[in-house]
């Protein structure tokens, strides 16, 4: 038995694990050395020779040996004087220093991210939002360098004139340009295009006085007639008035025999050739009404669309005194701080009529909502019915981004984009629904908010008050000349401005807000300001008014790229 015990002890002392353990103990200052253990004397030394150090238990021996050389060196488990350990030690120190530097750099960013305030908070009737720094790309189109387009709707010098003479003309067409200034502008462009399509003579359009605008403006009160006729003389024959030989002038306004009706919306050029031209040839003079959106886009020859751009951007000029006053207002906007500063133009569409027609739901008291319901029932009884179906419809429209932005909502978007409270802002709008209370959040975040009435004296604006369209023309031109144009809802004014800025130069920035994003973000109570601002910036990188490729049923007035622009 003694021999058996002796042989077992010998095998244990010669095992690889035992040899590694002894080697580690010899090289580590954390483990007791053999001489130390031997000095403890007696049988205890023999027992202690098979024990692990209390600082490094026996069951951790395998973990220690699994450590890489640099970690073992750092923990003093390996001799640091060896070449391998020294190199590994330096590498470990370098990695540690790199991680420490990265942590110091990222700590403030992480801290600010975790402690950013929520989206906005309301104090009374004002909306408080976090301040943002103004990035350098706020006043210019960030992707302008990637495009190379130029306007090319003007008539080419080598292009022959094919205007028929008075004897060769197919006949005369007469149209009523209905609606507001910008709807009338589109109707005039379409009238020239139709006259060209049918080789007819165009009688100078009449600006119809409708019930909404209640304006008595004539064509010559707002546009330069001489320039209009002379500029288009090689495209279409235009006369100022009905020919003298036609004695039944009243029939153009009242008689069904002299009126072409039931023209479908966005009709093709071929429709006019097949259905309208024969009647003009028969009667010689015909009136066309209604004439709102009665000519399509992608179902019209390219040259006709190019002619429409020529009329819109070159032939239709406001009278000189309107242009001069608009230049004064734009100059005052750029010098409000005592030095030259950029300015933003904001087209705010939140009039009572627009709010009612949208059939969207907006914040307000019960009394306000009841009054709006009564207004909608009176103005649009067929759509209103009993009102029970409107609530789910309003929610769906808001999710799809089809509701006008409130003043407070556009203020939040602009602040998220980086525009500060010092931004000089020109506002073009009608009477805002809700008055001062509704405007309070916007004015709170952008106090440098002005209208033409605040930029000009009552005496300066007096000549323009005789015609509502003259005041609208001032807003149009000041917005057109702005450094940044921002719309809040669709409409002829906004799309004509964006289209003209695209045509004039791709460096002009025009912001078309993503209203669907607002619905999603403002409905999330846990979204922080930093996350919201990042979403807004990323989403609007491609909504800055650059020329875009056209698509079926595109809107020529908002995006004139394909027919009216060419590569620079």
Task: Give the helix/strand layout.
Layout: H1 2-14, H2 16-27, H3 34-39, H4 42-48, H5 61-66, H6 69-74, H7 83-114, E1 121-123, E2 126-128, E3 149-151, E4 172-177, H8 181-197, E5 201-203, E6 206-207, H9 219-222, H10 225-231, E7 238-239, H11 251-254, E8 259-260, H12 269-283, E9 285-288, H13 302-315, H14 320-334, E10 343-348, H15 352-358, H16 366-379, H17 381-384, H18 390-399, H19 407-417, E11 424-429, H20 435-445, E12 449-450, H21 452-455, H22 458-461, H23 468-480, E13 484-487, H24 492-504, E14 509-511, H25 515-522, H26 529-539, H27 561-564, E15 565-567
Parallel strand pairs: 4-5, 4-6, 4-9, 5-7, 8-9, 10-11, 10-13, 11-12, 13-14
Antiparallel strand pairs: 1-2, 3-15
Biased composition (Low complexity): 23-38
Keywords: Carbohydrate metabolism, Fucose metabolism, Glycoprotein, Glycosyltransferase, Membrane, Transferase, Transmembrane, Transmembrane helix
Protein name: O-fucosyltransferase family protein
Task: List the defining traits of the structure above.
single chain; 568 residues; alpha/beta; six-stranded parallel β-sheet; five-stranded parallel β-sheet; 15 strands; glycoprotein; fucose metabolism; transferase; GT106_glycosyltransferase; transmembrane helix
